[in-house]
Amino acid sequence: YKIVSFLVPRNLRLLRRVPSCLFLLAHSASSMAASTAEASAVQIARSTEADLAITEYATKNNGFKGTLKYRYSDFIVREVAMDGSVVKLRDTSSKTKVVGQAEPAAVAAPAGEAKDRLALLTAIVGADQAAKVMELEKSAEGDSKGDPVVMAPDADKARRTAVHQLVREHFPLMASDSVKVGENNETAIRIFLKDGATDKFDNNRPFKRQKKGGSMDGSIFQANRHDPVIKGLPYTKFTLYKENMDTMSAISMLAKITNLKPNVFQYAGTKDRRACTVQEVTALRVEPSRLAGINRNLRFGALGDFERVKNGLKSDGDLRGNRFEIVLRDVQEEEEKVAEACDELKRLGFINYYGLQRFGSSAVPTHAIGRAMLRGEWDKAADLILMPREGEKEETKQAREVWAEKKDVHAALRAFPRWMHSERAMLEGYKRQGKNAHSNAIASIPRNVRLMYVHAYQSYVWNRMASERVRLHGLDKAVAGDLVHEDAPEAEGGDLVDAVPEETEEKEEKEDGKGEDKWQRAHPKKVKALTAEEAETTPIDQVVLPLPGVSVEYPSNALGQRYKETLEADGLDITNLKHKVREYTMSGDYRKLMGRPADVEWELLRYKNPRADLQATDMDELKGRTSA
Fold this sequence. Notes:
There is one protein chain. The strands form six sheets. Strands 1, 4, 5, 9, 10, 11, 12, 13 and 21 form a nine-stranded mixed β-sheet that branches. With 628 residues, the protein is α+β, with helices and mostly antiparallel strands. The protein has 21 helices and 22 strands.
């Protein structure tokens, strides 16, 4: 059976709420009543969408009803890379492609350069030691690798640094480190061949051992930072395939399994939880073999297609879009009406609301936490994260009640399950700083989760303004005062441009206070307000709405006043959104009001088994399985 397929560009999100964007249609030949328990677990009431300001429709078509995400394999999302290729999981082995630089074994020094580097090395360590290093390098050509060369002890740190630099720059097949030797525990330099060094030597390992708990195949070493390939290409890029887990949880699990910090990993966008999704991820200074080794014990998905690359992914635009393949089950409607709705989706598109996954699935939406943080109400934000809420598992409910009743950090840490990473991180913060240090406790949560709360509030405001724009002016055309890009980008940027990238956070913290204030600079995307004359010839799909922040402009029509009133009602000043905690300062961004998917295809199919998988995932294809 052909499954519906379409491409949604970056920042154009697909929502169940839009009546004419119901995509893959499946008629069940048997009643689904016996399976309502699973379906009810994933259905979300309309009131929840209304709470998030998802209230308006793209067309007047009444649409039709179906069951979305009955099985998580009914919703497949594949990232579309910047070069337009669709990301798929193709190879789960540790085989690694090097992008932009040759492998070390292919690097050979010219004869003239070999003489020069020998002279340089001799000048620092002497002829005897330099000759041993050259012999070690030559041994790499044969089957038997030479033993590491340990230099004479040298207390001169500057001379040792010069040796390390010389090895890095002129001996690409070798690396060096410092070791303690002799009865007096003096410092000496050790030079060794890279290839096979970790396998050959016992206590002469050139890599720094991590804490216990590395990958299942024993690859528990960080990448060798002296390796020129690692130096020039410090990131490992890989494909992450996951099932029934959101992106941040998957990254947290990877970090836990590999004993790394979550900010070692970078990704361009978050993907749905109840789905099978495929996306690119980069990891800073992590060996591909270390990541490939955990596949055998990775229950939620798989990693593969490893590459060495120069740059990590950025959340502000390192993907072009997403390709969706969606099954809607139990469709009870005439084919003509179904065809009409799908044709309207293809022709007119949909209102570009932020979807339900942006705001979490619990009784406490993430934007409510973000709003409290932006207002500096740290105690309220902490309570929203930790206190009891409706609809959770009994284990979680009891843990929250322990904290609510006693505010006993140690008792709460014993009660909260290990998988509740954010809550436990907060409790550890209270343990270190005291029970009233709410801001510090929240700061203990992983940075990407903290910023998610702020991003969710921006998204909530955007949804409200999108609905207001439709109510005020409809969707027939642009109106005077609407914003459009001055130079329409080929693909819009990321969700938000408000936070320092995690890999540069430390650097920018050191530079904080120097030079121009980042948050007062103009937004890189230039927009303009339309005149009445320009609006007459501007299609509605070019109109953008701002996410609130210090670097964006607002519509010059009535909608601009609605932004001001909405933020004021939430206790925020639209003219002063710079936060005293620097990373919570919202820079803002622009997002298209309407989304129009590309390459839309759809087809009706019939099935008998309500639990059957109706489309093949990447993992199914790797294992040779097909859909029902």
